[in-house]
Amino acid sequence: MSSPSPAISLFDSHCHLTWQDERHCADTIWQRAQEAGVKQCVTVATDDATAKRCLALSESLPGVSASAGLHPNDAGQEASALDRELQALEALLETGGFVAVGESGLDFYRDWADPELQRRAFRRHLEWSQRFQLPIIVHCRQAAQATLEELQAFGGPIQGVMHCYSEGPDEVEAFLDLGLHVSFAGNLSYPKAEVLRLAAQQVPDHRILIETDAPFLAPQARRGKRNEPAFMVHTLECLAQTRQQSRNELAALTTANAESLFGLSRSPVLD
Q1: In 3D, which of 247, 190, 218, 179 has the Cα closest to residue 3?
Q2: Are strands 136-141 and 160-162 parallel, antiparallel or unpaired?
Q3: 1 located within any domain
Q4: Would you say 160 and 136 are in contact if contact means Cβ atoms under 8 Å apart?
Q5: Confidence category of residue 263, pLDDT binned at 50, 70, 90
Q6: I need a labelling partner for 234 at 20 to 30 A (CA). Which of 14, 19, 127, 223 fits?
Q7: Residue 65 belongs to what domain range?
């Protein structure tokens, strides 16, 4: 597949540039991304340590913004340890420089973290989102009903995004009703993702985002490889075909939506 034309400017709404090593340094990966048309991204934290590294990258790499938050799989098994981590993240958010809170949410796919501690951390992130007036990046894996319960209990509308959406059409309507954006990643292009593609057709233009979740979830065309923002063109192609929109149109509206959601733009896509 050819690279996007120079006129296309993409925004990777969720990647992990800090999850790199000496062979895959963030500077080199981001240079390849820009050459592929990805001009902006949010590099997303999973704990206090990665939040600090995300912030440092946002200060050194053009077009890179940062989030601060605790991944649900890192909520752990001890309340005291969780509280210490949340206190550190709150202090970091108070210093400014971040465009989002998260990623946070619920993950019942693995048993790495106590479900009740995940809920406690998620509620705190929702409070931070409101307090700091920052969108929340929501992680949800095999926990759609529980995630909806927490979001509905907090009350909408909620400024934020369901990242790497992996549920079906019914659930997407419920998340949209809460005011959330919905972001699609490389798993949209997997052969067995028919239900996910049905959900992608239902998201209105002004609420849709695109992401890589790099270095995870490489799109089908690069499946088995370490994912990176430069591969987002493949997901763009799949999403455009799914929604029967041109690549250029979809690139423009997802970029405008991301810029608006993360406070980086003055011209959002209108309802």
Answers
A1: 247
A2: parallel
A3: no
A4: yes
A5: very high
A6: 19
A7: 10-261
Nearest of 42, 57, 47, 36 to residue 11 by alpha carbon: 42
Number of domain units in the chain = 1
Specify if 266 maps to a domain. Answer: no
Q: Is the omega angle on the peptide bond into residue 204 within 30 degrees of 0, that is, cis?
A: no
Q: Quickly count: other Cβ atoms within 10 Å of residue 32's Cβ.
A: 13
User: What are 139's strand-pairing partners?
Assistant: 105
**22 DSSP 8-state letter:** G
What whole-number percentage of the chain has pLDDT above 70? 93
Listed in sequence order, the DSSP H helices in 155-218 are: 169-177, 194-202
- Within 8 A by CB and 6+ apart from 140, the residues are 105, 106, 107, 147, 162, 166, 167
State the burial class of residue 251 (Cβ atoms within 10 Å of its Cβ: 0-12, 13-18, 19+): buried
Q: What tokens does 162 get?
A: 């369901």
- Residues of the chain above pLDDT 90, percent: 90
Say which range, 95-99, 109-113, 144-148, 207-211, has the weakest mean pLDDT: 109-113
Contact 245, 233 (CB under 8 A): no
What is the model's pLDDT at position 268? 45
Any domain includes 127: yes
* Alpha-carbon gap, residue 172 to 48, rounded angstroms: 30
Judge whether residue 266 has pLDDT over 50. no
Enter the pTM of the model: 0.94
Sheet containing strand 160-162, edge to edge, reads: 10-15, 38-43, 64-68, 100-107, 136-141, 160-162, 181-184, 208-210
- Which CATH number characterizes residue 247's domain? 3.20.20.140
